[in-house]
Each structure stands twice: as C-alpha cells, then as structure tokens.
Write the structure tokens for this entry.
Amino acid sequence: MNKHPMTKEGAEALQAELNKLKKEDRPRITEAIAEAREHGDLKENAEYHAAREQQGLVEARIKQIEATLSNAQIIDVTKLNPNGKVVFGATVTVLNIDTDEEVSYKIVGHEESDISANKISVNSPIARALIGKGEGEEIVVAAPSGNIDYEIIEVQYI
C-alpha cells in the first residue's frame, strides 16, 4: 500500500480528533443508546435510532482516521534541509503578477488540505508548480480560467 505524505501538525490534529472520538464521543453515544433502550419499544424510539445513527457515523470516522494515519508518511519540514526550495510542508508566499495580490499557502497532504485555512494539497496544480522552486522565481499555473503567473516572494519552513 502506498504511503501518503502528511505534515506533523496534520497527524497530531487527526490523532487528537481520534482520541476525542474514542474517549468522549463513543462513551457518550453508548450511554445514550443504553438510556434510550430503557424507554421501551425500540421500533418507535426516535432517540434510540438517532443515537445508533450517530454511533455509526462516529465509528466510520474512527476507521477513516485510523486508516489515514496508518498510511501516512509523516514529514516534519523543520527537520529538512531544502536549501530555500519549496518542499512538502513549506509555507510559500506568492504574488499574483497580474492582480498584484499576495497570498500564502502551506503545502500539505491531501487529507489535511483546507483552502479556507490556505492549506493546499501537494497534488494541487499550484503546489505542483511550486515544488522545487525558490524565492524570486516565477511560475505559471494552469487554471480553468487560463494561465496565472505568480512570483515566489518567500519560502518558510515552520
């Protein structure tokens, strides 16, 4: 099975979510099911069915996180020596040459990407264009609306 890259922070966040699901959510749901059973007829007991559905969702998420973590290759960018180049885990500030807009992205694994937090997947077109480049270099990203020209302003390994 192929290993998927993941930042140290991403792995820690998933582990924290897994711990919460196993130590808080799972016991709370088990207790809710037991309490709903005491109310009698399970066929017409909405609380029981809701708790069972919630239990299924929690168990599915636990399995998903465990599978993700077991297939993760955890990379700590602070321990790498990339010589100023953009690598997995780096935070890159780029300037859109056409709009003069500056934005920073952290290049992360697919499972931890979140564009609202400026975390982009290593598999995204912009990340693929950035990997291996350094400060001051220009890149072209093929977007649905056409090519976008960027200049790399800063590369950080935090």
Summary: The two ends are 29 Å apart (CA to CA). The chain has a mean pLDDT of 91.
